[in-house]
Amino acid sequence: MNLGSAIRSIRKQLGITQHELADKSGISQTSLSQIENAVKRPSNKTIQSICGVLEIPEAVIYILAMQDSDVPTSKKSVYDMLFPSIKNLALQIVGNENKTIIERCESQTRALAV
């Protein structure tokens, strides 16, 4: 699960700088940078604050952060069948007009992880 990548993708999609999101969320820009770069895992309180600023439900962050490796092998077929629809719904909540931006950021993150 890559929460930082999901937060970064949504933040960029909405045109918010790291400094703005950090300031409005009550955390330092350094902490936000560490979260976005998977150096630091955000607390539940921080996730709630970030979601409040981004005006999205927490579930959206978790859905967009989900990776294939998070799914047990025994559940993989169900995941493969349902996840594309669930992810599409999450993207619509954030704003379907910027769906391509989020997907491009996710592709870049996957490429860096390899």
Task: Walk me through this protein's architecture.
The protein has 114 residues and is mostly helical. The protein has one domain: 434 Repressor (Amino-terminal Domain). The chain has 7 helices and no strands. The chain starts with a helix and ends with a helix. The mean pLDDT is 83.
CATH-derived architecture: Orthogonal Bundle
- CATH class, named Mainly Alpha
Rg computed from alpha carbons, rounded to a whole number of angstroms: 14 Å
The helix-and-strand class reads: mainly alpha
Look at the structure and name the CATH superfamily.
Answer: lambda repressor-like DNA-binding domains
Number of strands: 0
Q: How big a fraction of the residues is strand?
A: under 5%
- Principal-axes shape call: globular
**Biggest beta-sheet profile:** none
